[in-house]
């Protein structure tokens, strides 16, 4: 690694300022030395499966909070910019020689009236507000660029890069948390952030992302651009090698074998239509596959958190409640028609998340009324997720 590369990865204190020639103050060096030789964080081994939760150090927590706050301000500013200052505004002269104020949005010009003190004020407020917001966005983007190498150096980057880019694109399209939630292994990144720990076992290793589609979403949520090609179009903008594995497939893969699955619950009435299965009418768009048990996740409470990708940049996404996740995974681990290796992993993830709820998210109870949407038979599995509740402990066979 070159000296230039090394300097890009040295953390800096959030309250350290850079002077005009970008030289660093003495406090920067003190912070860098502390980051290079950190105090070892506490670790705890949880459960019979030896799942390790590593607590974040105080420096990691402070850095994460600083990144989260910067990202939230950036997100609000970007939303304001897109909603209030999208398009353009200018004066146009009509055939009668009078000037009219026009605003262009989505390629369509609309008159706001003839030139007058009122329209001149609208014109000035639009351009000054857009310039100010754009300047604020530029500064916030630079701040996130500065935080990213620090996050990497402090081992805060967790979410796979391609997953993060897909989630950000869905969020920008207005679908994350409304029409789509992240389920499966990638949900663990949100749960560990809520618990202030890192799950250090191999349970977070994944080369795919599962997107749970809620067919009840409104078509008004979908932008015209997204609605033209749907999910496959979004994926191909991120990586042009993404393609459906078959016609009307629920799964797309890129050239590196990264998979994106679009899934949805089976309808209560198996003879009835399950609602929307695609985000567009394009025949190449992914078509969600109906899977038993997903209605429990769709109807469960939702949680969300700001997490950090492997390059050090933040993102936010929503997932089913960790209690619903744990119960669903335990249920999957009992299904005889499921691949044996997946059943083992399901059981380990179920107990890891249940242990996380018990030890770090104790305000979430498996007996709480907010889980009433889950069937009683599923909620009755909760005692088996408690320490000593594993049915394998009563088995006469060793836990090979």
Summarize the SSE layout with pairings.
Elements: H1 3-8, H2 26-36, E1 43-46, E2 51-55, H3 58-84, E3 88-93, E4 99-105, E5 108-114, H4 117-153, H5 161-172, E6 180-183, H6 187-195, E7 197-199, E8 208-213, H7 224-238, E9 243-244, E10 251-253, E11 259-265, E12 289-291, H8 294-298, E13 302-308, E14 314-320, H9 322-333, H10 340-360, H11 376-379
Parallel strand pairs: 8-11, 11-12
Antiparallel strand pairs: 1-2, 2-7, 3-4, 4-5, 6-8, 9-10, 10-11, 13-14
Helix pairs in contact: 3-4, 6-10, 9-10
Report on this model:
The protein is of the alpha+beta class and 400 residues long. Among the domains are: 85-130; 161-389, no CATH class. Helix content is 40%, strand content 18%. It is built from 11 helices and 14 strands. The chain has helices spanning 3-8, 26-36, 58-84, 117-153, 161-172, 187-195, 224-238, 294-298, 322-333, 340-360, 376-379, and strands spanning 43-46, 51-55, 88-93, 99-105, 108-114, 180-183, 197-199, 208-213, 243-244, 251-253, 259-265, 289-291, 302-308, 314-320. The strands form 4 sheets. Strands 6, 8, 9, 10, 11 and 12 form a 6-stranded mixed β-sheet that branches. Helix 9 runs antiparallel to helix 10 (340-360). The longest helix is centred in the middle third of the chain and has 37 residues, at 117-153. It is globular, with a radius of gyration of 25 Å.
């Amino acid at each position: 690694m070159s000296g230039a590369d090394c300097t890009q990865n040295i953390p800096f204190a959030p309250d350290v300022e850079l002077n005009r020639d970008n030289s660093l103050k003495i406090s920067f060096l003190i912070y860098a030395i502390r980051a290079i030789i950190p105090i070892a964080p506490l670790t705890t081994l949880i459960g019979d499966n030896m799942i390790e939760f590593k607590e974040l150090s105080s420096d990691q927590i402070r850095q994460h909070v600083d990144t989260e706050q910067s990202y939230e301000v950036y997100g609000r500013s970007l939303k304001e910019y897109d909603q209030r200052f999208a398009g353009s505004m200018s004066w146009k002269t009509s055939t009668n020689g009078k000037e009219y104020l026009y605003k262009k949005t989505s390629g369509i010009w609309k008159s706001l009236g003839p030139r007058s003190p009122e329209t001149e004020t609208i014109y000035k407020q639009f351009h000054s507000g857009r310039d100010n917001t754009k300047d604020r966005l530029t500064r916030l983007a630079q701040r996130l660029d500065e935080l990213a190498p620090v996050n990497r150096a402090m081992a805060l980057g967790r979410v796979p890069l391609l997953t993060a880019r897909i989630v950000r694109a869905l969020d920008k399209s207005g679908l994350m948390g409304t029409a789509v939630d992240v389920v499966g292994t990638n949900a663990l990144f949100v749960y560990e952030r809520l618990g202030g720990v890192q799950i250090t076992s191999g349970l977070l290793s994944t080369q795919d992302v599962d997107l749970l589609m809620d067919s009840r979403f409104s078509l008004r949520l979908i932008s015209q651009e997204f609605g033209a090609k749907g999910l496959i179009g979004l994926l191909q903008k991120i990586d042009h090698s993404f393609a459906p594995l078959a016609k009307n497939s629920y799964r797309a893969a890129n050239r590196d074998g990264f998979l994106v699955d679009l899934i949805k619950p089976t309808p209560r009435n198996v003879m009835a239509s399950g609602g929307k299965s695609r985000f567009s009418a394009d025949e190449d768009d992914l078509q969600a596959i109906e899977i038993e048990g997903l209605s429990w996740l769709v109807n469960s409470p939702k949680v969300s958190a700001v997490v950090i990708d492997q390059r050090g940049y933040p993102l936010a996404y929503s997932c089913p409640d960790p209690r619903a996740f744990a119960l669903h995974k335990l249920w999957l681990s009992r299904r005889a028609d499921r691949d044996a290796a997946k059943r083992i992993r399901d059981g380990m993830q179920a107990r890891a998340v249940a242990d996380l709820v018990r030890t770090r998210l104790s305000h979430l109870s498996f007996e709480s009324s907010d889980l009433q949407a889950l069937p009683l038979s599923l909620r009755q599995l909760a005692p088996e997720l408690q320490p000593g509740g594993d049915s394998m402990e009563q088995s006469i066979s060793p836990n090979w």
